Amino acid sequence: MKVFKLSFLGVLQATALANAYIWPSPYDALEDAYTVSGGFGDGGIVDGVNPCSLSPIGGRLPGRQAAAEWLRLAYHDVATFNSTTGLGGLDASIGFETERPENIGSAMNTSLVFFAAFQTKTSSMSDVIALSVILAIKNCGGPSIPFRAGRIDAEAAGPLGVPQPQQNLASHTAAFANMGFNVTEMITLVACGHTLGGVHAVDFPTVVPQSAITSSNPDGVVHFDDTFDSFDNHIATQWINGSSEDVLAVGDNITTNSDARIFGADGNATMRAFAADASLFQAQCSVLLERMLNTVPSSVQLSDVIEPLEVKPYQLSLTLNADGQLALGGNIRIFGTSDEAEAAVAAQMPVSLSWKDLDGTANATHSTTLTAVSQTSTSLWGSVYFFTIDALLEAQSGISSFTVDWAFSASDTLTHSDNGGAGFPLQSVVLFQPQGTCTDIKGNITALALIRNDLGAVSSVSFSYNYNVNQPGSVSVKQVTLQTEMERVGVSSASPIYDTYTTTFGKGPFTDEGFITFDISAVVGGQTFVAPDNQEAGLLTQCGSRR
């Protein structure tokens, strides 16, 4: 089997709109997870913190709070950033550092294992960590924090230096200054971090009395304030009015009362302002937490802010059926923030899809009406609806792009969505065929693809398998890509204009965690065509089994 390096190219995508987020994008999986928080199309991140009080592993670790643990994980990853050298920051090096005393507790391991399910070839663990914090805070009633992607995961541990409760104020001030935050910003970040969750007696026995450990609270978690499951300013109001229950501020062990030292670092001016104005607290938390999450190595360039697309394809599939027709499936997602969007009834929304031939020719007959998905969907940012595509296309004509016409109600004027002007690109030259892709009892995968044979010479046919492997010394997994050459085995029995290509390979050591996807690429007539991001889930059958 020949293995070679492939330069990944998009599916006939226009590139005129530089920096604009149009589909497809390397950040599509992250945008999906950001936009849809429940129901159909839900990636599952918010499920881990809904309700806000939910303990990790779907509530199976009572007393703990996943949302607070996700925020703590992100902070500990960033805390050793050096603003002078530009090294460190949110880079998922924390996966190599969870055995350090400064990162005590099982919470970080639990969070990283959960996050592995959301890693893709373009969604780094550090991007997932950042996104998790943004979603958790919003789900807990906190502010909207802008999300940028593009973080690159470290492949080794970073330096020591996460601030500890027993350290004095000068040490904490110096540590935050090293990260690039002044005293006021230090106070704000600590207050924003400690409006959720609490301290675990099993991890900090000198801070929390062991009497806190009970059968219903086996970790002995004592909360920072009286609304641990609400992102609000009670951490400040209780500190200022003298009713604080924060054991890092009013605990019996004065040595570990680091919050008291930090909150009082400016004579309590910042905390008084937060106690007096809940909206100020939310606004400042949004600004500072965004800065924290965007603290990355100086060599990393983050994307523009990612926001929900108004119209977006979801899990598209294009295959050749036994009758020689192209079967187009998948969904179209529609998102809105208006009152009209919130009041919409999906089953009554007019939505249609029109496509152009392979050569870019429009045809009035190339259109299909979409049906609403019966299952509802939710978003933290607005209203979201999905519509199913079920269309048959003539193989000879093919497809090069499509547009979507839609409205929130039948009485409204239709909106024509063309993906920034060029349409939503979709090619029919290279097809992944799940019906012929399978795995044998040894775990070897046989993959099947179809490639048009009437558009010129075919070369460099590659099958890319994107999967996760364990990293020595780290809790986090790492996504890798195995690329193999595919061989022609003959003309497709379904259509003479397609040839069949196949490859069989073993994927070696792996873990099933994370998104496992297939990409197929080929140069046909001097142009590169790619059928990307075919998800393994639900596709692989046992070789030789009935379908």
Automatic annotation (TrEMBL):
- Domain Plant heme peroxidase family profile, by residue range, is 122-333
Query: Which region is the signal sequence?
Result: 1-20
What Pfam families does its record include?
Answer: peroxidase
Q: Which InterPro entries match?
A: Ccp1-like, Haem_peroxidase, Haem_peroxidase_sf, Peroxidase_I
Q: Give the superkingdom in one word.
A: Eukaryota
Q: TM spans, by residue?
A: none
Q: Which UniProt keywords apply?
A: Heme, Iron, Metal-binding, Oxidoreductase, Peroxidase, Signal
- Which molecular function GO terms apply here? heme binding; metal ion binding; peroxidase activity
What EC identifiers does the entry list?
1.11.1.-
Q: What does this protein do?
A: Destroys radicals which are normally produced within the cells and which are toxic to biological systems.
- Of which family is this protein a member? Belongs to the peroxidase family. Cytochrome c peroxidase subfamily.
Protein's UniProt name: Peroxidase
